[in-house]
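Continuing the series of single-chain predictions for the mutant panel. This is the parent chain; the variants come on the following pages.
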Amino acid sequence: MNKILLGSLILALCAGVSGCGDDDASVADAGEGHHEHDGGEHDAALPDASEPDAMIDDDAGDEPPVEDTAYYPVTDGARWVYRHSGGSTWDEDVVLTHATHEGKPAFMLRDTSGPSGNRSETVLARVGSQIARVYREELNGDSLQATASYAPGFVRFDHAWVTRADGYVETLAYERVERDADGAITAEGERSHHYTIEAHDDTVEVPAGTFEDCLRVRRSRVRASTAAPVEGDEDLFWFCPGVGKVREQDTVSLESEELVSFDIPDE
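Parent structure:
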C-alpha cells in the first residue's frame, strides 16, 4: 500500500477498477469485472453522439505525465475483492500481474466468474499518464466467448486527474473492435466518454474499512440525445490513495461494487 513511482511508457496501441466493473453491454465496453472490470452487458448498438458537447481544458494537453500511481496501483500481484450488489450479490476477486502485450510492457487484470459464469482477462497499458484498457477477453471457464480491442485505449484512470481542480471535465475517445470466438467482427466504431473530477477529499465507507481523501470521478458515455440510457452510461468511481478503486456506482442500474479486502505487495 505504498506510492509507487514508475517511469512513464508511452505505448502505440492497436486496440481501442472491481476487481472492478463498468461499461456497456457488449464485451467491448464491459467494465473491469462484470459491471467497468470495469463489466456490464449492455446494448452495443445504440449510436454515439457524433459531436460531443463537453468542456475541455485547453491547458491540459502539454503537461508532463504524472507518475505517482497511488490512486491506481499497478503492483505485480496486487489483489482486490469487490462485492457486487443492487442485482445479484456476489464477490469478485481481481488480480493484477505485470505482463507484455504485443511485445511491450503491460498489465493483466484477471477476475473471477460472476453469476453468469463468465469471467474476463483484461490487458491494461500506459498511455502517457493514463492507465487504459487495450484488449479484453470474455471467457466462460476456459472457453473464449468474445474479444474486444481498443485504440489508443479505454481510459480506466489518469494520474493527471489528481492534479486537476474539482469540476474539471475532459472528453476522451477510442476506437473499439469486438469479435466473436471465431474472430469475426461483431461490432466496431468510435466511442467517447466525459470524465468529470467531482471531488478530491471524499471519505468512503465500504466493507474493507473507511478511506479518506478519495478522488471521485464521474464517467459519462457520450450518446445521441435520442438514445435511452443503459447500464454503464453513467458511473461514479472512488479512487483512494494507496488502495485504488474502493467503490463504483452505476447511476442507471443502481448496481454497485464495494471493496471487501485488498493486498498490494511492496515493490
